[in-house]
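Kindly inspect what follows.
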Amino acid sequence: MLATRIRRWKSVALATAAVMAGLCAPALTATPAAATTTAYDSTYYKNAIGKTGTSLKSSLHTIISANVSKISYSAVWDALKVTDQDPNNTSNVLLLYSGVSRSKSLNGGDVGDWNREHTWAKSHGDFGEVVGPGTDLHHLRACDVQVNSTRGNLDFDNGGSAVTNGGGSTVDSDSFAPRAADRGDVARMILYMAVRYEGDDGFADLEPNEKVGNGSNPYMGKLSVLKAWNEADPPSAFEERRNQVIYDTYQHNRNPFIDHPEWVEAIW
């Protein structure tokens, strides 16, 4: 009987020690980011809350495609002067990729000007500058003319050499990487386009993939890199304000990945 009690005591002691060791040991995997809660969850996003995967993507597509106002490509000039306004200088816009603050009046096509950058390159799906994906403010940004030309229609990926006056952006023969402070912005703009344009409105079905050099195909890579950028560079106050201005004043739809960056992982 005594031997039985001793064996039981040893078993309990060993089990307790194992539990305590587990509590003290460092976690081997990262804890998933907590879900974001926004003022729009009970209204705008109510049919998407709680969903994942293709169901979430489908719900978001319906939400962000409904009752959308569209503008002409020429009207984008004035819209960007509002959406991309430098919060520290209301006479300027903040330029994508370089982070430079430049006078709103310097919009055009000459060296030293800023122009309209399609983050989802307009050749990837061949939608050009037509009203719709070609004029969607959620992926159009003010950008230095020369930096925009350097990016061209390249896919996004890590690596490459420094872009002249690019603020830390890099480029190689088949891909472009924005400066660190813009990488999450770019990821969320690209993935917005993939949800917004699903091929049911006369335009190509835009999708992210794991390739670079996608050319005129309606794909943009690399998805794994874009996901990592979304995690590493969360939405900024500038990005959130921009999303709100587009919703309130122009298109009346939102980029869901700015409101809920965790939905990137939930879908892809």
Remarks:
- Residues 192 and 255 are 6 Å apart (CA to CA).
- The two ends are 59 Å apart (CA to CA).
